[in-house]
Amino acid sequence: MIISELKIIDNDLCVVSMNDAKIIHRHRPFSKIVEFKKVNDNYIVVREDTKNYDTKKSNIYCLNDDLVLKWYSDLPLEKDSYPNPILWNKEINDHGTSWDNYVIDNIDTLTCSSWKGVTVSIKYKTGKITTSIFTK
User: Helix, strand, or coil here: 116?
Assistant: First the structure.
């Protein structure tokens, strides 16, 4: 069994063997990866920088353990993007009354705010928006 870890090497996301430090798989981003997290077996969620990014596709997407694309997340509005950090394992609370309870824990979703002012919760398994709210 090969034990591996995820690393950024020369701007690429790589699966690296912990036994001999060899690169097993490599993913070349469109722009620059600003954050990534393995959220489940075979689910690695990536957020790329919005600079020089193709606005036809979401800059949040998911790769499998071989770094093959599984999905691009939905965008709340046409030609929108996600420049803000991801809140991992969080979901918008429809009944929240203040920022303290605006998001709640949920191991199946992430929450992120878009450039055009929409905050969304996105399912890890599908990339689909489950909840959205205008927050700008």
Answer: coil
**Which amino acid, one-letter code, is at 67?**
L
- The answer to whether 59 and 53 are in contact (CB under 8 A) is yes
Q: How many CB atoms lie within 10 A of CB 102?
A: 18
Q: Which pTM was predicted?
A: 0.94
Q: How far is CA 8 from CA 42, 47, 74, 107, in A?
A: 18, 13, 25, 25
Burial 21-35 (b: 16+ CB within 10 A, else e): eeeebebebeeebbe
- Cβ–Cβ under 8 Å, residues 105 and 126: no
How far is 21 from 85, CA to CA, in rounded Å? 29
Give strand pairing partners of 123.
Answer: 109
* CA angle centred on 71, ends 67 and 74, rounded to 5°: 145
Q: What's the residue count for the chain?
A: 136
Task: Check if the beta carbon of residue 13 is closer than 8 Å to that of residue 26.
Answer: yes
Query: In the chain, what percentage of residues exceed pLDDT 70?
Result: 98
Amino acid at 79: K
Instruction: Look at residue 45 in the predicted model and tell me its pLDDT.
Output: 98
